[in-house]
Amino acid sequence: MADNTCHFGLNSFFGDNGLDDVHSWLYFPADALQMQAIIKRVFFQRGVRFVFSTRAKVPYVLKPHSEEKLFGGGYEFVPGKDEIILEGKDGYVVSYGDMLYRSYDAILRVRQEGLDVGLVNKPTLNLVDEQVRCTRVELLPGH
Questions:
Q1: Going by C-beta distance under 8 Å and a sequence separation of 6 or more, which residues neighbour residue 89?
Q2: Dihedral angle sign, alpha carbons of residues 55, 56, 59, 63
Q3: Which of 10, 77, 96, 101 could form a disulfide with 37 if both were Cys (CB 3.0 to 4.6 A apart)?
Q4: What are 31-71's pLDDT values in tens digits?
Q5: What is the greatest pairwise CA distance in the chain?
């Protein structure tokens, strides 16, 4: 999104070209601090890993109602784990990478209109976090 149109719509989800003989990991951090945490955690792991990044600078993601950086001191990245940024009663937006700060802003605006929407960060693109999916997404009222 932030890189402009020079990539002609390449789909990051096909970064591993469908390798079927090895499990690959597709990571897309939301800001520079999460990038550092991801690299620190996965750099020496065995296997194929893709860490995506834009060339454009994005702002640090802040903790709710704070000026403290969400992925700052004390944050530890867990591969395959989705991260609940904001709890919501009316539904959730699932986001990743440079879209997270934009989604966060949109959710804060929608909340001012009375809709209690939550936000999930999905830094590992190609794995389903069953715990988050089952407790947050499928158990919403009316579903």
A1: 116, 118, 140, 141
A2: negative
A3: 77
A4: 999 999 999 999 998 888 889 888 788 999 999 888 999 99
A5: 48
Residue type, 38: I
Burial 43-82 (b: 16+ CB within 10 A, else e): eeeeeebebbbeeeebebbbeeeeeebbbbeeeebeeeeb
Residues 6 or more apart whose Cβ sits within 8 Å of residue 119: 84, 85, 86, 88, 92, 93, 95, 100, 103, 104, 107
Interatomic CA distance for residues 68 and 127, integer angstroms: 28
Q: Give mean pLDDT in consecutive 10-residue pieces for the chain, a chain of 143 residues.
A: 52 62 84 96 88 87 91 94 93 93 95 94 90 65 49
Residue 16's alpha-carbon distances to 47, 54, 55, 116, in angstroms, are 12, 18, 20, 36
Of the candidates 24, 76, 31, the residue with the CA atom closest to the CA atom of residue 57: 31
Flag whether the pTM goes above 0.85: no
Structural domains in the chain, CATH included, are 12-137 (3.40.50)
CA angle (69 as vertex; 65, 74 as ends), nearest 5: 115
Minimal CA–CA distance to 141: which of 90, 84, 94?
90
